[in-house]
UniProtKB/TrEMBL annotation:
<dbReference type="Pfam" id="PF00005">
    <property type="entry name" value="ABC_tran"/>
</dbReference>
<dbReference type="GO" id="GO:0005524">
    <property type="term" value="F:ATP binding"/>
</dbReference>
<keyword id="KW-0067">ATP-binding</keyword>
<comment type="similarity">
    <text>Belongs to the ABC transporter superfamily. Ycf16 family.</text>
</comment>
<protein>
    <submittedName>
        <fullName>Fe-S cluster assembly ATPase SufC</fullName>
    </submittedName>
</protein>
<dbReference type="InterPro" id="IPR003593">
    <property type="entry name" value="AAA+_ATPase"/>
</dbReference>
<dbReference type="GO" id="GO:0016887">
    <property type="term" value="F:ATP hydrolysis activity"/>
</dbReference>
<dbReference type="InterPro" id="IPR027417">
    <property type="entry name" value="P-loop_NTPase"/>
</dbReference>
<keyword id="KW-0547">Nucleotide-binding</keyword>
<dbReference type="InterPro" id="IPR010230">
    <property type="entry name" value="FeS-cluster_ATPase_SufC"/>
</dbReference>
<dbReference type="InterPro" id="IPR017871">
    <property type="entry name" value="ABC_transporter-like_CS"/>
</dbReference>
<dbReference type="InterPro" id="IPR003439">
    <property type="entry name" value="ABC_transporter-like_ATP-bd"/>
</dbReference>
<feature type="domain" description="ABC transporter">
    <location>
        <begin position="2"/>
        <end position="248"/>
    </location>
</feature>
Length: 251
């Protein structure tokens, strides 16, 4: 599904190398988690995959089902099936949540040469998905994320993901700021989307999220590279011992 090879990324504005040779291979249907100390490059990886400005790829590649993502515009990456749930979801005053969801869905359909969804079908779909995430109708009418609590914003990200049905879902610290119940809701939302043809890359600092979204593979990122890959036990090791031992092994 997603193949990242020797990815090197620097900041466009200054001569600072952030990713220093990331290799990652995620097969269809797999859930991978990335953990790692603050500032190791986890969010940068998710931004570069989705095409955010400000970063320069100096070496390497990232393909989604064999197609080079790094040469596509952000909207083309989304239409190809990539989705990023932000660590800090943005507020969009003046744009209703429903309008945003429907416009995003139809824009992707258009790029894929598909017909627009009818107003009736959209309404049915959004109400059904919102209900499972306990997002009430009033929140759907408000401007995107404006005045939403931290947890509501994160649930709204998962609603976007559920509506767009991407193939490759990247979740950047979706658990931060969530209370225990909201975390379970988000995890249930993710688990409901798990399927043979859909993969997940879950960036998190906490093992507890991985109790709910069970990963197949766990990677540790440090200093711009993946320094260790293992199973779910690796997340437990980090929870118990921190990163010091892993970093020492690396040096
Ligand atoms: N636009 C930018 N301008 C300046 N520095 C940046 C920029 N983007 C990233 N960096 C730096 O790159 C490094 C990696 O940042 P990144 O946000 O990817 O780390 P992270 O692993 O996601 O951290 P955290 O766990 O704290 O969220 C940090 O040192 C950060 O300050």
């Amino acid at each position: 599904m997603l193949e990242i090879r020797n990815l090197h990324v620097k900041l466009e504005e200054e001569d600072k190398q952030i990713l220093k040779g990331v290799d990652l291979s995620i097969k269809a249907g797999e859930v991978h988690a990335i953990m790692g100390p603050n500032g190791s490059g986890k969010s940068t990886l998710s931004y570069v995959l989705s095409g955010r400005d400000g970063y320069e790829v100096t070496e390497g590649s990232a393909t989604l089902e064999g197609e080079e993502l790094l040469e596509m515009e952000p909207e083309e990456r989304a239409a190809a099936g990539l989705f990023l749930a932000f660590q800090y979801p943005v507020e969009i005053p003046g744009v209703g949540n429903m309008t945003f969801l429907r416009t995003a869905l139809n824009a992707q359909r258009k790029l894929r040469g598909e017909d627009e969804i009818s107003a009736g079908d959209f309404l049915k779909l959004v109400r059904e998905k919102a209900k499972t995430l306990k997002i009430d109708a009033e929140m759907l009418k408000r401007p995107v994320n404006v005045g939403f609590s931290g947890g509501e914003k994160k649930r709204n990200e998962i609603l976007q993901m559920a509506m767009l049905e991407p193939k490759m879902c990247v979740l950047d610290e979706t658990d931060s700021g969530l209370d225990v119940d909201a975390m379970k809701l988000v995890a249930e939302g993710v688990n409901a989307l798990r399927s043979e043809g859909r993969s997940f890359l879950v960036i998190t600092h906490y093992q507890r999220l991985l109790d709910h979204i069970k990963p197949d593979v766990v990677h540790i990122m440090a200093n711009g590279r993946i320094i260790k890959t293992g199973g779910p036990e690796l997340a437990l090791e980090v929870e118990n011992n921190g990163y010091a031992n892993l970093l020492a092994e690396e040096n």
